[in-house]
Structures are given as C-alpha cells and as structure tokens.
Amino acid sequence: MGVIELNSFAEGRFHAPTDGPVDIASAVTGDVIARASSRGLDFRAMASYARDVGGPALRRLTFHDRALMLKALAQYLNERKEALYALSLQTGATRPDSMIDIDGGIGTLFVMSSKGRREMPNADLYVDGGPEVLARDGAFVGQHVYTARQGVAIHINAFNFPVWGMLEKLAPALIAGMPVIVKPATATAYLAEAAFRMMIESELLPAGSVQLIVGSTGDLLDHVTCQDVVSFTGSAETAETLQVRPAIIANATRFIAERDSLNASILGPDADAASPEFDLFVREVAKEMTVKAGQKCTAIRRAIVPRDRLPAVADALAARLGSLQVGDPALETTRMGALAGQDQRRDVYDKVAHLEKECERLFGDPDAFDVVGADARAGAFVPPMLFHCADPHRAVDVHAIEPFGPVSTLMPYDGIDDAIALANKGGGSLVASVFTHDPDAARAFVMGSAAYHGRLLFADRTCGKQSTGHGSPMPHLVHGGPGRAGGGEELGGVRGILHYMQRTALQGSPAMLSSITKSWQSGAPELGEGLHPFRCTFQDLEIGHTLHTAEREITLADIEHFAEFTGDTFYAHMDEAAAAANPFFPGRVAHGYLILSFAAGLFVDPAPGPVLANYGLDSLRFLKPVSPGDRVKVRLTAKEKNRRNDEYGEVRWDVEVTNQDGDAVARYELLTMNAMAA
After folding, report:
1. Domain with 602 in it: what CATH number?
2. Buried b vs exposed e over 542-577: b needs ≥16 C-beta within 10 Å?
3. Domain contains 49
4. Which helix (H) or strand (E) holds 361?
5. What is the DSSP string of 445-464?
6. Of the candidates 406, 439, 474, which is a domain's last residue?
7. Are 120 and 497 in contact, with CB atoms under 8 Å apart?
8. Is 640 within 8 Å of 651 (Cβ atoms)?
9. Do residues 305 and 510 touch, judged by C-beta distance below 8 A?
10. Are residues 377 and 450 in the same domain?
11. Any idea what the CATH number is for the domain that residue 449 is in?
C-alpha cells in the first residue's frame, strides 16, 4: 500500500496536512504507511463552528431522531467494514482483534440507538424522576430535567481502539444533542480517519455535528467554555496534564477521564485445579494478555490466586501461552499480532524492567522469541510475558506501573480479605473479575472491593460460556472507574448520554411545569371534558385530557367470585377473622387486581377506535384497602405522548382510583399504543 495523506475535517470540509507532517509506521513491517499533521487548522473556529452550526442542527432533532440517525450510520458502516479490516492489519491487530474494535464500535452504535429510542422520550427534553411537592396545597412543585449542553464535546482517544474508541464516545454525545470534535491518537489515526471519512460520505449527520483533528490539538483546549465536555482516554499522566489546563479549571469544563488501570482478576478460594472456574480463570488471563497484544485498558495486569494454587496456575498459563503463535496478523494461524508501534514496544520494555526488580519472570523472553511471517525487529512484536510477585504486599511497582502490552503478574493471597486488599492496592481500576462458584465469596468481594472498581465480573460454570469476559466493556453498562482509572464513567446506556446534558431543577406551578416538560402533573389543568380520551387519535389527544368515571360498588360477592375465578384465595380476601387480625386490614378486603380490573371496566371505551393495545402498567401502588360496600371511581389523565412511527404512538396515562371518601386506593401509570390519524 502507498503512503496515505491523512486529512482532518474542519468547518465542513477536509483539510490535507500542510508543512511538517508526522510519519506513521506500520506496526507489522515498520514501513511508513501514513502522514498526518493538524498544522494550519483554526481550532477556535472549529469549536465555534461546532457550537454555532452543529449544536443547533442537532438540538432541532428529538432523542429518537438522533438515535435513528445512529442506527442508519451503523448500518452504513457495517456494509463497508471490510475496508476497515484490511487497514486494521497495519495496527498489528488480528482479525479477532479487529472485530472487537470495528464490529464492537458499530455494535455500540446499534445498542445506544436502541436504548435511546426505548428509554428516552421522542422529545428534546428529558424528565428526571417525578415531581417534588414543595407546598402543602400542591400549588408549588419542583421537577428535575436534562437539556442538551450548548457547547462542543472534545473526544481525545487512545491508539488501541481507533474505531470503537471513537464510536463509543460519539454515540451518547450525538444522542444528547452535542456536536463532537474527534481527536484520534496519531499512531493509528489512519484507521480512525478511514472510518470517519465513511461517516461523512454517508451524509447522515447534520453539518457541524462531527469534526476530526488528525495530529495535535494545538490550542483547542484554551478555547473551552462552561458548556463544553472534554472526554479523554489514555494514560494517567496525560489525563492529569489536560485536566489542569487553565481554561478547563476556570470554566469548570466537564472532564471525563477513562485512564489505564492495573486491573485485577482473582481466582476464588473455592476454585481448585479440578473446578471449571480454574479453567475459566486460566483461559481468561491468557486471553486478556494476548488479545490486541495486551493493549487494552481493561486487560488483566494482576492475577491474584490462592497461595497453594499458584504453581498449578503458573504451569497452566505457561502451557497456554506457549502454544500461541505470534506473527503477521494477516495469517489465519496467528493468535497475537504486534504492538501499535516501536514507541509502544520501547515503553513496554521499560516498564518490564521496573517489574523485574520486584518480580520473577516465569514466561516470555524478549530477546528470544519466534515471530511467524514477519521481522520481529522491524515490526513492533513482543512476546507474552508472565511474572510472579512473591511478596505483593511489600511490592510497589507491580501495583503502580503498567506495561501496556502482553504482560501480567501472578501474586498469591491468603484468604478472601487478603485477596481484596491486593485487588484494592491498584488504587482504583476499570474492572476486576472474580472466578468463583461461592455466592458468599462473591458478596464478600463486592462489599470489600466494589468501591475500588468500575465493574466487577463474576464468572463461574453457570455463565462462563455466555460471559462477554473480563475485558469487554458493554454499552449497556458504565465504563470507567475510581482513582487511578480516572474517576469517570462512559457508556451505561442513558447514563452515558446524560454526561453530555445539564440537569436543572425547575420550580413553579404544576400547570407551568406540565407545559414545559410536556408531562402532566397532579394539580395541572384537566382538559377534554365531555369527550372520552380513547376516542382521540394520537395527534388529537392533548396532554392533560382527563376522564372522571362513575362509581362502582365492590360487594362481598364480587370478592368471592374473583377469588373462585382466579384461584387467589389469600386469607385477607376470604377469612374475616384472619384478615381482621392483620394490622393492615379492617377485615376482608378486595383483591388489588380486582380493583384494577374494575377500574379498567370503568374507564375503557369498548368500541373500536384509536387505542390499539394496552401493553403495561408502571409504578403501581395499592394505597388503602377496599372493603365490601366501598365505592370506587377513576380519574384517567393523558400524562405523556411519544410518537413511535407513522402508524402509532405511545401514550402514558396517569390513573388514580379513589373511594367514596375521596381517598386514593390505587395509583399507577397505564401504557397504551394509539393510532395516528389517517
């Protein structure tokens, strides 16, 4: 392949590198394959373009619009990913490695798109929780909401996952309505630039919503404001340098860091050499040492095992690592490729030299190892290296220095408390895993160690085959960790989206806040008198449209018939003396589900109409017993509407069932699908 001139994308157009581009070498051959430079870019103008053009364009869309945009983008990239696979080989990645990066990134777009549509409204404002009543008469209330921040998200990504690292940050930011400037690590920027170029060619994203810097960020971070977000992935040293930039401090700019960490994996005290957990542990440690040549921020750096099992673990790991072929990632037989470049190899060897002062090397000789199909010195190849730290409590570097490559250290423990203490000595990590089939041991690790780790994986014979593994952050769950790991969180479904939004407490009357949030609150006006709300199409139904039903008396015969018909003969409904002895009941009471059934009978309009289906209840509470002879009635109010497609939308109804004294006996939210007008 020829030398690729990498382009930045700023203010709506691609910019070729000007003077002094940096050479980027293949991790496999050492040949120059790309050149990059960001000289000549106006970083202040890029930030302004994002805020003034991209931000308004995104905020004109709803959460669902943005989520569907990501789905279409994922489909577009998925159809063209083979070109990315071919380029990924030059990063030293094997085909399975590239799947984690490329397919993982595309998959994250799909997942975040789905969660954005299922868990967020088809609106431009996100309501956080229920209202807070601030006055006795309910005339003054509070409500928390999230709105899109009116700045730019600056994403500074690491070299190890040039596609996934970019897409996993883009997805929540764009759904939140925030434009993004992407800065990939230069060493593998050719792969990130290729994926980014596809995104621009798709014409699916609004103008100004994404920009790309290939090379240095220059003075970009000097122009951040209180509305911007900086999200960084990489080393602790670089994160600390960025986080104290004067503009970031002065403006309290939101800074999200996902830093490398000394993640741990623990073999449980119950897992002997004959157990499935032992085999799972050995397999996972070896995999995390060698996938992406160990260049994962979630890789297992410290393998903590019961003292009496350490020799068996060491032998099993050495055998597995010894069968592994290191070489040209294009070969199907290669199981571990190269590091990302010569700088990375030098850094790994430097860190290994520190470990060797405290540890014994059990496997892997950097001066004598086989590489198949490539030149070990021309490429950035290193062997997998396994160390043993005999006294991990006295050691310092093994808990503080991370060789970012195929390196892991075995260390013994004596009892669960000792294992927890060793895991926590890393000072905070992205993930720890525990291989145990003992629930008590698992809970002990949670209570003793969860505060030090962003994610805990418990692997055993039950979930071992289905588990995504120690080193795989999932878009459904938060990705980050305390302390050394940076103290931030990414992903986590809607949680990740909210990082790019501002939470604000609103105060006012129920009517005012209902109008602002488009979510009806108790005390706001009730609309639509005289017209049954079930006769309204989705478009015609107004928030606040309310039906007050007639009363219905609940008799003892109703209760006994319901019990016989359903089989629910719980004593509180059938035995007067036993029910009266219960402190919650005055005697025999109606079934809660009888109340719901009668409530539905009171408010349902039976004729065919716009209501297509009832698909659930939320927040159901039974508030007061209903005795034989009580009369109940229902208030049904249209609370929220969410358009789903051109045929129907979701309606959330606020339902309150009261008795003859006006006391609420049940309260819940009903969900229906309502047809659009023809």
Report:
1. 3.10.129.10
2. ebbbbbebeebebeeebbeebbeeeeeeeebbeeee
3. yes
4. strand 360-363
5. HHHHHGGGBS-EEEE-TTTT
6. 474
7. yes
8. yes
9. no
10. yes
11. 3.40.309.10
Q: Is the pTM of this model over 0.70?
A: yes
> Rounded to the nearest 5°, which phi and psi values hold at 544?
100, -10
Task: Summarize pLDDT for 475-503 with one digit per residue, the tens.
Answer: 898 898 888 888 888 888 899 999 999 99
Does 438 lie in the same domain as 395? yes
Place of tokens 């959460």: 63
Query: Phi and psi for 244 in degrees, rounded to 5?
Result: -100, 15
- In this structure, what token pair is assigned to residue 487? 């103290």
> How many C-beta neighbours within 10 Å does residue 414 have?
11
Q: What SS3 class is residue 548? A: strand
- Same domain for 458 and 534, yes or no, is no
Q: At residue 397, what are phi and psi to the nearest 5 degrees?
A: -65, -35
Number of domains, the chain: 3
* 373, containing H or E segment: none
307 and 338 part of one domain: yes
Rg from Cα positions in the chain: 30
Give the pLDDT confidence score for residue 377 in this predicted structure: 86
Shared-domain flag, residues 293 and 197: no
Which helix (DSSP H) or strand (DSSP E) does residue 11 occupy?
Answer: none
Structure tokens, 516: 């602002």
* Alpha-carbon distance values, 103 to 122, 194, 236 (Å): 28, 15, 27
pLDDT per position as a tens digit, 260-303: 889 999 999 999 999 999 999 999 999 999 999 999 989 999 99
> What angle do the packed helices 104-119 and 63-78 form, to 10 degrees?
160
Based on the fold, state whether residues 250 and 282 are members of the same structural domain: no
Task: Give dist(CA 496, CA 170) in Å, integer.
Answer: 11
Residue 417 included in any domain: yes
Paired tokens of 529: 């008198």
The Cα 572–Cα 437 span in angstroms is 41
Q: State the CB neighbour count (10 A cutoff) for residue 389.
A: 22
Q: Of the candidates 486, 501, 516, which is a domain's last residue?
A: 501
| Res. 4: pLDDT tops 90 | no
**CATH at 174:** 3.40.605.10
Determine the Cα–Cα distance for residues 486 and 508; give it in Å rounded to an integer. 38
Would you mind telling me the total number of residues written for the chain in this entry?
Answer: 678
Q: pLDDT tens, 177-222?
A: 999 999 999 999 999 999 999 999 999 999 999 999 999 899 999 9
**Distance of alpha carbon 653 from alpha carbon 672, whole angstroms:** 8
Q: How far apart are CA 11 and CA 179, in angstroms?
A: 12
Residue type, 559: I
Domain hosting residue 642, numbered range: 526-675
Whether residue 423 is contained in a domain is answered as yes
Q: What's the one-letter identity of residue 438?
A: D
- Ordered DSSP codes for 110-175: HHHHHHHHHHS-SSS-EEEEEEEE-STTSSSEEEEEEEE-SS-EEEE--SS-TTHHHHHHHHHHHH
Reference 202, options 96, 109, 91; nearest CA is 109
What is the residue type of 580? Answer: A
Q: Are residues 437 and 549 in the same domain?
A: no
Which of 142-146, 383-387, 453-457, 503-507 shows the lowest mean pLDDT across its residues?
453-457
Q: Are residues 183 and 297 in the same domain?
A: no
Q: What is the residue type of 120?
A: M
Half-sphere exposure of residue 338, counting CA atoms within 13 Å on the CB side?
Answer: 35
Residues in CB range of 144: below 8 A, 6 or more apart: 127, 128, 129, 503, 504, 505, 506
Q: Is residue 213 part of a domain?
A: yes
Pair of tokens at residue 191: 């792969």
Query: What residues are annotated to the active site?
Result: 258, 297
Pick the closest to residue 636 from 619, 620, 653, 616 (CA basis).
653
């008799």: which residue's tokens? 555
